[in-house]
Amino acid sequence: MKYIDEFRNLKLARKISAGIKTLMPQEDIRIMEVCGTHTQSFFRFGLSGLLPARLKLISGPGCPVCVSPQEYIDRAISIAGVKDTLVLTFGDMLRVPGTRSSLENERWKSGNPRVVYSPWESLNTAQRNPDKRVVFLAVGFETTAPAIALTILAAQKQKLKNLSFFCALKAIPPAMQFLLADKRLKINAFLCPGHVSAIIGTRPYEFIARRYKVGCCVAGFEPLDILEGIYFLLLQIKSKRAKVVNQYARLVRPEGNPKAKAAISAVFQKCPAVWRGLGEIPQSGLKIKKTFSRFDTEKVFALKPIAQGAAKKSRCLCGDVLKGLVTPRDCPLFGKACNPGHPFGPCMVTHEGACNAYFKYS
Predict the structure, then answer these.
(1) What is the pTM of this model?
(2) Ranges of CATH 3.40.50.11740 domains, the chain
(3) How far apart are CA 139 and CA 78, in angstroms?
(4) Residue 361: partners with Cβ closer than 8 Å, 6 or more residues away
(5) What are 160-185's pLDDT values in tens digits?
(6) 217 with 245: CB under 8 angstroms?
(7) In Å, how far are 9, 47, 223, 321, 341 from 14, measured between CA atoms?
(8) Which of 139, 165, 264, 301 is paired with 71 by a 20 to 30 Å CA distance?
(9) CATH code for the structural domain at 8-52+173-246
């Protein structure tokens, strides 16, 4: 039965691929897959071999680890060095380079930070270590934000006094709008992230189709999902009617997840945020509301900005990769000085990074 299903899927994939080729105009079409998981799936399943050469799928900034700025890493390292402080983080943050070091390097020296798999673990750690200050590195997009919000609400209910969250949460739609303002990119359509859209729904993308006349399609991560999403986008391009299409209807609803969104709005408010490679984007961040300020690491530690000094020139092109201006292969370090075993930039660190995907599967 497994082989019959695989044969049917391959047959359907070729059918969709043939449909895509009939819709292709003479000029190049540039579709940005915002989510790093789409990039991984695209290369992992060899979909480039099913698509015409004029169809360019470009990677976007949909990797939360990749877009965390150096200053955030530097400040996290400084917090980890404070006496009687435990820093908790997701594992893929460890190797993200700061200005002079990484969290992984500091961990080798002192055992701090510690790796956790859920923000919920921070509650148990704080309870077991009442004599320590526990800091959770709250990094991610709208997908991660509800779990962190619920953890903060639980910490308030439990009246924990030694737990805080160093927040670097970001929102995807403002970043998409920011990218459209860069005319060098020439984005014809967006393949929108399925995980994020499961939380926020499809409606937050409607302004992109309405105001910028750029089509959007929320798609899943299986090969057929991606091919069908591309097909739907090309239909829009051919008809010159931009709209938001939901290919991932088995999981995503137009209104999103009301309970998850309620948790986010209860704990967080929008704010400007700095994205590595992109700069500051208005209303693209989520910060902890004043009501929960005792759980805000910025307030608890009275953190001040770290003086970065003059930016050093680097041959690493992660910033341009995140913008979709270049592909990882255009970077002089790719596959040489920079590889998954020795990442030079954040795009090579995590499986959601474009450079990591290109190296593994391309």
Answers:
(1) 0.91
(2) 70-171+256-300
(3) 17
(4) 40, 43, 44, 46
(5) 999 999 999 999 999 999 999 998 99
(6) yes
(7) 9, 10, 11, 30, 36
(8) 264
(9) 3.40.50.11750
